[in-house]
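I hope you will forgive my troubling you with a question about protein structure. Here, with my thanks, is the record as I have it:
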Amino acid sequence: MIFMKYRAARFAFLLASALPLSGMAQPVAAEASAGDSSVVGAVAEHSSVRAAFLQTLYDNPAMQQHRYATTLNRLALSAEGWQATSPQLLEEGDEGRHAAAAIDAYIVKRQTTLWGQAGYSNGRTENVGFTETSDYQLLYPYLMADTLACGTTHEERYDFSGGFASAVGNRWTLAAAGCYTARLDYRTRDPRPKNLTGHLRLSLAAALRLSEYQIGLAAHFNRYKQTNELKFYDEVNVPVVYHLTGVGTDYYRFRGENTSTYYKGTGGGFSLNARPVGGRGLVASLTYHRLQLDKIISTLNELPLATLTTDRQQAEVAWMERGWGVKLTESYAHRAGQENVFGSPAANMYPQISAMPQYGSHEWQLGGQAFCEQRLASWHLGGTLGAYYQHWSEEHLAPHSELEAHRMGGTLSANAQWQHDRWLLSADGALDYAWQADGSLSTAQLAMQSVLPPTEHRFSYLSQRELQTKAALAAHYDTRRGYALYAALRWHWRQYLESAHQNRLHIAVGLTF
């Protein structure tokens, strides 16, 4: 079934690519340059510092209306490569290369705003370890894994999204948005996973104007499925396959040859928002999402091994003025894992006799940030300054293992845009440094040493200092034929685990209109 959805997604992408639609729907309510209706003027508005400042507000599609004052469409081709001396997490691998094509649109039509996106990427990642399951960050800790970290994992991904927000009368705005992601991951050397995933997200929203403020409410729905198949062609050197349960533990009874699993789940949530109609004043947002997923072993007559419930909450409060703003952000994620217990099998059927809550994790972050920007003749200058605190903890009850880590850090960024005649040139730089980090790790005596490395590596990464540096250059040239050509270069360097580091380079070319 999911394979059919994947093929349908491929066809839909080819169809969407032929449509006269594109554009970059990037973050936040910005203010257009007065009197500048050119293509490069729209690019300048959509890429300003103010436009990237708020995040949580636009989980509500009703808030997309008047997000920007100008229409912007973009067609882009890009390539990215990265390499690490040691991976941040063993599940991420140590090298990757990807190419992508994307078409985006943000269209302003009087009382209605439309946006949409279609994207395709193809690439490979080297030496992924301790997971043969895709979307491991979403499904952690219930991953299927082996102890090998070698070979090339091929990745193919399709993304589609779109929505609208429309005014109804003088006070109401109605909106809807949808997003679908299809993904195929596979390897051509043992062990050979072939994973197909599909993730559908839908939102319905409404907003009401009360005096000088607009109050919005949105309902979110999502559905996820993954078929996770693992095969071996070498029948002699077959590694042990583990079904991990978190913090260096696995479900001992079902390790071995059970290599066919799938995940399915549904979820929902809401967004509540308030913002000033004129763009100046207090902005407040709260979002909540819940996703419940079941892991099922297909080769054991659809045995429901475990259930993972993830609750995520985000809050953002900001004060916005024309040239500056400040905000406080908070986010919290809780994962609760329930493992099912089974009796003796009869005709390969395992009767479920109980269910035990075994795994729990907590991730909490608190931050504050300020931005300022100023237009001086043909220059547009801006920057941000922020600080944050992060805390992680996870625990498996029996056998008992526990991990805890925290960090405190700060961020600094600067942006410069120069607009002259047909040209828009921009440069960005950012620095993120976590200068205080600590933690503790306690693993069970019964924990398998063979599956401990990813937990130990994860703990080392989270509990040590980290430095990140980013730089970007972009040039747009207005042809004065209704579109502009552009090229962009982005570089990202990070140091962690004391001396380990990673380099990432991204290049893109395309056109905007």
Q: What stands out?
A: Residues 50 and 81 are 29 Å apart (CA to CA).
